[in-house]
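lol ok so funny story. i was supposed to be doing the assay writeup but got distracted and ended up predicting the structure for this chain instead. priorities right. anyway since i did it might as well share w the group, maybe its usefull for someone
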Amino acid sequence: MAIADYPELVARIEQGWSVRMYDGHVRPAFVAPDQLRLSSAPYTVPDELWAYCLPPPPCTPAQVTADVIAATNRHPGLASAFAGEMLTASRLQALAMAAHASAFRSGADRSLGAIEFDQVATAISFWRMQGRVGGPTRIQPFPALRLTLRCALMRHALVTNQLEQAAAVLDVPLVEALGMLAGLGYAAARNSLSQAGIHISSRPEPGLLLDWLADRRGFPPLREAERQGFSRPGQGNGGAKAGTPIA
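and the output, tada:
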């Protein structure tokens, strides 16, 4: 049944009814009464409302932290490409937590800053190249850290219309990179995109890809600031706004 106004919604929740939250952009989220906190205080920004129904992240901050510790303990001389400096545990930890918050809307729930984004892209590129030559800094053994950095990069690329460049940095097909954002493997992402009539080879508008992602349960909805600049089919501004180029 449809609920006409806010007072009726509150009354139904107090009676123990579950509700579906929908903002017109993303897939309706089914929310049980014990997951809601009723308050008479106004919310500051619409993003705060999503905190109650975001999908659980594929890895926790604790798992990422454990990977950071393991990586730095395993390779005390873990080198970075950040102006020739060493990537210490504290620097990597701060970067990983910022990436986790950006990719999965956890903790501080904020987008990556420009400098942080550049560091994430640099770290991924550096570790990828080290892995190709069998170097000691390969990040593959640290799955939570690796996934967090990759998803942060792809989410930023989605917002700034640089998906192909980001997939190249990750050294994976674009379908696989999109699947990371949706919590899907390559085959599942390929089949889902095909069923939606989206063909990556035709370079679909970012707005179409966002519509597809928004319908995946594993994708945390874009923040209001991230949503700006997107067009829907037929609305015509061409897609996402451009951002700082991915190296």
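Strands lie at 19-21, 29-31. The longest helix spans residues 114-132.
back to the writeup now i swear
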